[in-house]
Amino acid sequence: MTAPVSRPQTMAEKILSQRGDHTVYAGDLAVVEVDQVMVVDSIAQSFIERMERDLAAKPKYPERVSIVVDHVAPASTVNVAQAQKEAREYAAATGVRLFDVGRGICHQVLMEEGLAQPGWIVLGSDSHSTTYGAVAAFGSGMGATDIALAAASGKTWLRVPESVKVTFSGELQSGVTAKDAALEMIRMLGADGATYQSIEMHAGDRFTRGERMTLANLCVEAGAKAGLVVPGGEILTDYGYHVPDWVYPDEGADYVQQIEIDLSVLRPRMSAPSEVDNVHDVADLRGLKVNQVFIGTCTNGRIEDLHAAAAVLKGHKVHPNTRLLVIPASSQVMEQALEDGTLLTLQRAGAVLGTPGCGPCMGRHQGVLAAGEVCVSTSNRNFIGRMGDKDAQIYLASPAVAAATAIMGQIALPEDVLAVSA
Ligand SMILES: CC(C)[C@H](C(=O)O)[C@@H](O)C(=O)O
Ligand code: SF4
């Protein structure tokens, strides 16, 4: 008998081996247990149709399925209302979890509810399901059919992705954030530079859970299948997570690509229209007039993001030619921001506050853009037509830059605001 070959593994290979029934490497086919299946409102109708009509199946483990009403919530049209009604009825009939209007954006909610854990496999009907990699879960987005198959069988099959290693070194300077690091990463990799690969991010004990979510969230914008942040220091255990020893990548694992990002030289960054990898220094885009600023989304709608925005906006007013929309990512974020006065600061500065959820992120409601308008958003996509008219322009930035822009009425850095008030 020959001894089984054992080679060093990447984090993706580790998780897919552990959740399957044998050791796998990049390129292998893996059949794995799925720990959580997430379905968003916009896809719920197709999901239910696949389950009931095509598969004639019930969820194998209802406790492993969550439906979140977040993308167009509260409903904006009769059709949307009807689809959400069906989602509620389906949840009641099958016993799957339902997070209804106002609870928040799917990825934020699952994370808050502990429905993504280190070493788990979490599949979502949403491309930004890479976000779960923040807590070392293999999170990935799939279409309604794959999601339904996973819900019906409790398993999924996939080709084990190759991995890209991204190493973060140095420390961020003040005013520079994880969003800037994430945008820089996407610029370096390119919009399709990591197609079907797993981006494995090595950051030591840098970055909070929320910042790790921002990094993992953006990974899909380089085409990645997953975006895994290697747990470092006590970051995850401090949040109460159990990090299994087997989740860490091995020394000497195979990477198809390796890049390093020195955080200490990074300046605030911004994606200009209409690709996420079209990244520039904010300083070089300064001065462009902006009609709408949107602070929120699964990328940057967390409490620390609202704090960063409030720190810049406190004592200032939103520019008269600009509107500022602030939408907390979840009801939990909203509560915290109510309790600690952040929302009052934002409201007094002239922000328009919205119901926790996706808001105008994908242009369905609550802040759609007209032709020729310019928006600075803390989200993750600036594609043509994403937030409304095809002739609107979207720039992506951190909450601090978005807040400074709202005050100045034009693309600005937080230090520009200080210069004006001095
Ligand atoms: C509606 C949903 C399927 C979509 C996604 O897959 O990401 C949306 O969340 C987005 O950000 O474009
Ligand atoms: S906030 Fe935006 S990017 Fe995130 S899930 Fe919602 S629509 Fe998609």
UniProtKB/TrEMBL annotation:
<comment type="function">
    <text>Catalyzes the isomerization between 2-isopropylmalate and 3-isopropylmalate, via the formation of 2-isopropylmaleate.</text>
</comment>
<feature type="binding site">
    <location>
        <position position="358"/>
    </location>
    <ligand>
        <name>[4Fe-4S] cluster</name>
    </ligand>
</feature>
<keyword id="KW-0100">Branched-chain amino acid biosynthesis</keyword>
<dbReference type="Pfam" id="PF00330">
    <property type="entry name" value="Aconitase"/>
</dbReference>
<feature type="domain" description="Aconitase/3-isopropylmalate dehydratase large subunit alpha/beta/alpha">
    <location>
        <begin position="284"/>
        <end position="409"/>
    </location>
</feature>
<protein>
    <recommendedName>
        <fullName>3-isopropylmalate dehydratase large subunit</fullName>
        <ecNumber>4.2.1.33</ecNumber>
    </recommendedName>
</protein>
<dbReference type="InterPro" id="IPR006251">
    <property type="entry name" value="Homoacnase/IPMdehydase_lsu"/>
</dbReference>
<keyword id="KW-0028">Amino-acid biosynthesis</keyword>
<dbReference type="InterPro" id="IPR011826">
    <property type="entry name" value="HAcnase/IPMdehydase_lsu_prok"/>
</dbReference>
<keyword id="KW-0479">Metal-binding</keyword>
<dbReference type="InterPro" id="IPR050067">
    <property type="entry name" value="IPM_dehydratase_rel_enz"/>
</dbReference>
<feature type="binding site">
    <location>
        <position position="361"/>
    </location>
    <ligand>
        <name>[4Fe-4S] cluster</name>
    </ligand>
</feature>
<comment type="pathway">
    <text>Amino-acid biosynthesis; L-leucine biosynthesis; L-leucine from 3-methyl-2-oxobutanoate: step 2/4.</text>
</comment>
<comment type="similarity">
    <text>Belongs to the aconitase/IPM isomerase family. LeuC type 2 subfamily.</text>
</comment>
<feature type="domain" description="Aconitase/3-isopropylmalate dehydratase large subunit alpha/beta/alpha">
    <location>
        <begin position="26"/>
        <end position="283"/>
    </location>
</feature>
<dbReference type="InterPro" id="IPR018136">
    <property type="entry name" value="Aconitase_4Fe-4S_BS"/>
</dbReference>
<dbReference type="InterPro" id="IPR036008">
    <property type="entry name" value="Aconitase_4Fe-4S_dom"/>
</dbReference>
<keyword id="KW-0432">Leucine biosynthesis</keyword>
<dbReference type="InterPro" id="IPR001030">
    <property type="entry name" value="Acoase/IPM_deHydtase_lsu_aba"/>
</dbReference>
<feature type="binding site">
    <location>
        <position position="298"/>
    </location>
    <ligand>
        <name>[4Fe-4S] cluster</name>
    </ligand>
</feature>
<keyword id="KW-0004">4Fe-4S</keyword>
<keyword id="KW-0411">Iron-sulfur</keyword>
<keyword id="KW-0408">Iron</keyword>
<dbReference type="InterPro" id="IPR015931">
    <property type="entry name" value="Acnase/IPM_dHydase_lsu_aba_1/3"/>
</dbReference>
<comment type="subunit">
    <text>Heterodimer of LeuC and LeuD.</text>
</comment>
<keyword id="KW-0456">Lyase</keyword>
